[in-house]
Amino acid sequence: GSELIIFLADQKEPYFKPRVKLPMKSLSVTITSVVPGDYDGDSQMDVLLTTRAQSHGGDELSVFIFWGHNQTLDLNHKTMLNKTFHDEPLVMDFNGDLIPDVFGVTSDSNKPQILIGGNLSWHAALDTQSKMYIPHSHAFIDLNNDFTADLFLTTSPDSQNVQFETWVNKDGNFSKAGKSKRMPSGVKVVGQSVFADFDGDGQSEHLLPVCEDTTCQKSAIYLTKLGLDQWIPVLQDFRNKDTLWGFVPYQNDKPSTEISFPITLHIGDYNMDGYPDALAILKNTSGSNQQAFLLENVPCNNVSCKSVRRMFKVFWELSDLNQIKDAVVATFFDIYEDGILDIIVLSKGYSNKDFTIHTLKNNFEADAYFVKVIVLSGLCSNDCPRKITPFGVNQPGPYIMYTTVDANGYLKNGS
């Protein structure tokens, strides 16, 4: 698209009201992603946009930062970064100053660069020889349980293989931990890595959706974590009665009129049992139908996932979800701000350029509670510039862990 609209949430209907409009048509660019964050440290939300030029079909991404002021954005109050990126950048806090930085491989270097938030200066990020995989699924997340966010990288030693590197953050310096982890053997298509506390032990696990052939006739989801050398399958059964389903492989070489999405799991605990579930887009391997499915996190019932005690099971019969044809993205979102996750699905419209947004209310009722956490940057409290309240800026990297007691009186960890 070429226009950004920001809807502000409200407790009364309509629950989302359009507040900010940024038409980008005059710049002749197509918006490819939107990342809110406080990029100058004034405790007001700014918005970073990655864009692709409409005229030539190049892969280079330009980045604009629109500076927030009193909950508005102004088309004239922006900064365009003087370097372009090969892939979507990762927003992280590289130097620990609580102001988000921008990490990625730029067009003038093979190694990752970091744009430091605040003064917007460029620096070499890591001393690595590895080539970054495109589309990447890097992450800024605590992987060694020291409550400091580390850097997880997806790299590509050659066109056939994907590897995973963990760079541990020690006192603000990133150093590579151990050897690179190879993708599961026999895998031909690798999806986006995602992290969740899959088995409820308080530590994040690495989940990876894959296909074992190029057309995704045979799909699977594997799990691993730091210190574990093997990949454990947590979902391999994609058959519903007589129909075999599979992930939708990402096509990098599609014409610019069509959009292809990498294989992505969106994580959320829809039934509030303390174990993260997922949403995935699957297609009928013998037909053309493509739709969103809920993957429920259930106790493991086979030998292959025994060591993690949990597995995913596809919820085939969710009628409202099944009615949405040609789904391309599905994610969890708490629309009513009541702690219960609802579902948002994006589907193709009549043409490949049009998309429709569907929302599904989660009617799940359980004797459960939820905790809402707001992470403040701490850059200012009651002395913020222009007397604004420092709530609502998007902080990359915080890690929340809690211990609670379940209904049977047993201690349960979560993160």
Could you walk me through the main structural features you see in this protein, from its secondary elements to its overall organization?
- This is T-cell immunomodulatory protein.
- It comes from Charadrius vociferus.
- One of its GO terms (cellular component) is plasma membrane.
- The chain is an all-beta fold and about 425 residues long.
- The chain has a domain at about 190-370.
- It is built from one helix and 31 strands.
- Strands 21, 22, 23, 24, 25 and 26 form a six-stranded antiparallel sheet that branches.
- The model has no long low-confidence stretch (mean pLDDT about 90).
What is the helical fraction, as a range of percent? under 10%
- Radius of gyration using CA atoms only: 21 Å
Oligomer: single chain
Which stretches of 5+ consecutive residues score pLDDT under 50? none
Shape: globular
The overall pLDDT, averaged over residues, is 90
Beta content comes to: 35-45%
- Count of runs of 4 or more consecutive helical residues: 1
Largest β-sheet summary: 6 strands, antiparallel
From the helix content, strand content and strand pairing, which structural class follows? mainly beta
The counted number of beta strands is 31
Q: Ends: how far apart?
A: 35 Å
Summarize the topology.
Layout: E1 3-9, E2 16-23, E3 29-37, E4 46-53, E5 62-66, E6 78-80, E7 90-92, E8 101-105, E9 112-116, E10 121-124, E11 139-141, E12 150-158, E13 161-170, E14 173-176, E15 181-182, E16 189-190, E17 194-196, E18 205-211, E19 219-224, E20 232-235, E21 239-240, E22 243-247, E23 266-268, E24 277-284, E25 290-299, E26 310-315, H1 319-322, E27 327-333, E28 342-348, E29 355-360, E30 402-405, E31 411-414
Antiparallel strand pairs: 1-2, 3-4, 4-5, 5-6, 7-8, 8-9, 9-10, 11-12, 12-13, 13-14, 13-15, 16-18, 17-18, 18-19, 19-20, 21-22, 22-24, 23-24, 24-25, 25-26, 27-28, 28-29, 30-31
Organism: Charadrius vociferus
Protein name: T-cell immunomodulatory protein
InterPro entries: Integrin_alpha_N (IPR028994), Tip (IPR024881)
